[in-house]
Specification:
Helix content of chain A: under 10%
Structural class of chain B: mainly beta
Radius of gyration of chain A: 14 Å
Distance between the termini of chain A: 41 Å
Order of helices and strands of chain B: EEEEEEEEEEE
Radius of gyration of chain B: 13 Å
Shape of chain B: globular
Largest sheet of chain B: 7 strands, mixed
Largest sheet of chain A: 6 strands, mixed
Structural class of chain A: mainly beta
Number of helices of chain A: 0
Strand content of chain B: over 45%
Number of helices of chain B: 0
Shape of chain A: globular
Number of strands of chain A: 12
Number of strands of chain B: 11
Oligomer: heterodimer
Largest interface: A-B, 25 and 26 residues
Amino acid sequence: AQTVTQSQPEMSVQEAETVTLSCTYDTSENNYYLFWYKQPPSRQMILVIRQEAYKQQNATENRFSVNFQKAAKSFSLKISDSQLGDTAMYFCAFMKLNNNDMRFGAGTRLTVKP
Amino acid sequence: DGGITQSPKYLFRKEGQNVTLSCEQNLNHDAMYWYRQDPGQGLRLIYYSQIVNDFQKGDIAEGYSVSREKKESFPLTVTSAQKNPTAFYLCASSAQPIYGYTFGSGTRLTVV
C-alpha cells in the first residue's frame, strides 16, 4: 500500500517570507498523481496544487510551487510571500493512475506570523 | 453555486445509537467519497462510490454503511458497531479523480 509521510507536524513563517513543507511517499508505481490540499480553520479542504508524475516540470500556481523529485519520492510545497491567510493545515496526497483511493499524509500545521 | 453540502455541521450521539450524516452535491460528479479525520492521522477513506447503486469499502469501513440511490446523494451511517466514532467526517466528490476532489465543509460527530 502507498504511504505518505509529512515529517513536520508544525511550522511557522513570518509574513512575506518563504516556507517549504516536506512530503515523501512510498510507491512501486511509475504513473501517479500528487496533490497538496489546504485546510483552513473553516476545515473545508481546498486543492492547492497537483503534479502528474510523468511530467518532469514542477507545477506552479501563483505563490505556490512544488519541488517534485521522482527518484527520491519527494514532493515538497514552497509558499512564497507568505500571507496571514495561508495559515492552515496542509496535506500532501498521493493517488495511483486510474484509482479512486487518494492517500493523505498526517498534515503540517502552518502558522504565518505578522 | 455548485458545491457539496454536508449536514449537520455538529452532531451528538449517545452510545449505542446509529446516526446518519448527509452529503449532497450539485456538481454532477459521478464519484463520491467519505473520509474520517482524526488529529495527527490525516484523512482515512471509509467508503467511495463511482456510480449510482455501487460503492466500495475503504480502509476503515467497519462500523459504517453507505447508500448511493441518487447521483447527488451519498449518506453515511455510523452504526453502533463503530467502536470509536467521535471524529470529523469529510465528504468529497470528483468528476475525474486525477484532477483532485472537491470537499464539503465536514461534520463533527461526538459520542456522549
